[in-house]
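Side project, low priority. Logging it here so it doesn't get lost.
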Amino acid sequence: MRLSIGGVLADAATLWRGERDLIVRIAGVMFLLPILALAMLASGMPITEQTRPEDVRGLVEQFYGANMVWLLLISVMLDFGTLALLKLFLDRQMTVRELLVAAGVRLLPFVLLGFATGAIINLGFTLFVIPGIYLFARSWMMGAAYAAAPQQGLFAAIERGFRLSSGNGWRIALLGVGVAIVAGSGAMALLIVAQMLTALAGGAQWVQAVALVPVAAAGAATYVAFLLVRVAIYRRLAGSSNGI
């Protein structure tokens, strides 16, 4: 089956309209709060206009080393929210409470799968941009496959996700990267505004914290848009493979 880009986007919009209230409640906790925490942590990095490009890498490494525990907790919380919303759309035979409990029970394999696919994608990007994007596209459905049928295990999810993306790698890449760029640009614009407001206030911490809230909200909205497109792609491909 050849994916229709317009059809996928229309499906994603339908998913949003059908479960908007529940999505906002889950994303408000599982996406907005960790993204806000990450933004506040990152705002403490001593990178200015005078920082030399060759020094940036060292500062980033210091940041990761000093905040590794917090960054891991933020990553796990984002993964929990992602798995909960994936199961909302792909395994909806349970109440909201059961949904969250099931996401918690299945979280560790999902996190491990994320680390594995992330490592593969990073390996692709070390070669060149195009291999990295292609590997992202071929692995993006693996997490969705696990959320839809966790009882089948990680290896089955990896195989099914890779198989479903066959023949549609570049369309999936276009959809995923395109949504990330378009939605993420709003968050970047708000981040620039937040930095300007903080500078005008003389670097006051409370101004920075308040200004970062809409940045985190835009980041959470980007996560939601990215996830809805992911679900829409998976449902189309999985439905086709099942003869639907």
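Brief comment: The chain has a mean pLDDT of 85.
Revisit when time allows.
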